[in-house]
Write a structure and sequence with these properties.
The structure is a single chain. This protein is α/β, with parallel strands linked by helices. The chain is built from 10 helices and 7 strands. It folds into 2 domains: 220 residues, Alpha-Beta Complex (Spore Coat Polysaccharide Biosynthesis Protein SpsA, Chain A); 66 residues. A 7-stranded mixed sheet has the order 3-2-1-4-6-5-7, sandwiched between helices. Helix 1 links the parallel strand 1 and strand 2. The C terminus is likely disordered. One of its GO terms (molecular function) is glycosyltransferase activity. Keywords: Glycosyltransferase, Membrane, Transferase, Transmembrane, Transmembrane helix.
Length: 306
């Protein structure tokens, strides 16, 4: 009889006050709980071990994305069939794990726990909702993946995703990078409703504004390198065309150019040419990387990153 090995894995940073409760909650639904202690200055690792967690400790704080990489590496070493990723700070309810596991049984490779479907998310602070929606839109623009909660830290990965997902980022942008990888490689994903607590004294170890800026900056970099013809070459052509149209309009209506108009036309055409060549060069570089590493996109790592 075929037995499925299910693990829960969680990055942790100074969560000694709550992590035991999270681990014990997870153990009701999974075979093993992995904790990646990302350089905590408290006794997170000791508390996690005493609660039955398998602990791997980063000697220094490397960032959320680096901790996620370790989670994926350990899942592959464990030969896990299913991996639940969740936050260790008590925001997520382990009793909702079965809700994420169910779609995996029907062919999904990734299940995202969403705080915003089915009219959910009323308890999410307004400033967080706005920031998350902006990042959802940015993730869609970067890779065409449409989800309601691109920044959710509560996810379930099937065997195919565990074995194949790769990403570069060591920071909070890793969640969006993973979604872009899932879309690029035609893995199946879906969303299920979850709930999230925001009433905890230490519900987040990172300033939400800094988190949003960090993720947005990384997504913008991905947008330029993943789809350079769309984000550089096409706007560049439009800018050149606009400059030429202005030139034609002034010749037809006025018959001469002032210094300001000449400077504007020159700047528009020069910027447009620069954007066109930038887009073409980035496109060629992306194609070269894809050929060097089969199955990889231009923005993805050329190795596991571990």
């Amino acid at each position: 009889m075929y037995l499925t090995l299910t693990i829960a894995a969680m990055p942790a940073y100074n969560e000694a006050h709550v992590i035991a409760e999270v681990i014990l909650g997870c153990k009701k639904y999974v075979d093993n709980v992995i904790v990646v202690d990302d350089g905590s200055s408290d006794n997170t690792a000791e508390v996690a071990r005493s609660a039955g967690g398998y602990v791997v400790k980063h000697e220094v704080n490397k960032g959320y994305g680096a901790a996620l990489k370790s989670c994926f590496k350990l899942a592959r070493e464990f030969n896990a069939d299913v991996m639940i990723i969740m936050d260790s700070d008590g925001q997520h309810n382990p009793d909702e794990i079965p809700r994420l596991l169910e779609p995996l049984k029907h062919g999904a490779d990734l299940v995202i726990g969403s705080r915003f479907i089915n009219g959910n998310g009323k308890n999410v602070p307004a400033y967080r909702k706005v920031g998350m929606k902006i990042l959802d839109i940015a993730t869609y623009l970067a890779g065409g993946i449409l989800v309601t909660d691109s920044q959710s830290g509560f996810r379930a990965y099937g065997k195919k995703a565990i074995e194949n997902v790769r990403f570069d980022g060591n920071n909070m942008s890793a969640g969006s990078e993973i979604l872009l990888y899932i879309k690029d490689h035609n893995l199946k994903f879906t969303e299920v409703e979850i709930h999230c607590r925001y009433d905890l004294d230490q519900c987040s170890s990172q300033n939400p504004f800094l988190h949003g800026m960090e993720v947005a900056f990384q997504i913008l970099k991905n947008m330029g390198f993943r789809r350079p013809l769309y984000y550089f070459t096409v706007p560049g052509i439009l800018l050149i065309a606009a400059g030429l149209l202005i030139e034609i309009a002034f010749l037809h209506l006025v018959g001469s150019f002032g210094f300001g108009v000449i400077s504007l036309i020159f700047l528009m055409i020069l910027t447009g040419i620069f954007m066109v060549f930038t887009g073409v060069i980035l496109h060629l570089v992306s194609k070269m990387i894809s050929q060097i590493v089969p199955g990889q996109k231009g923005t993805e790592s050329l190795n596991d990153g571990f």
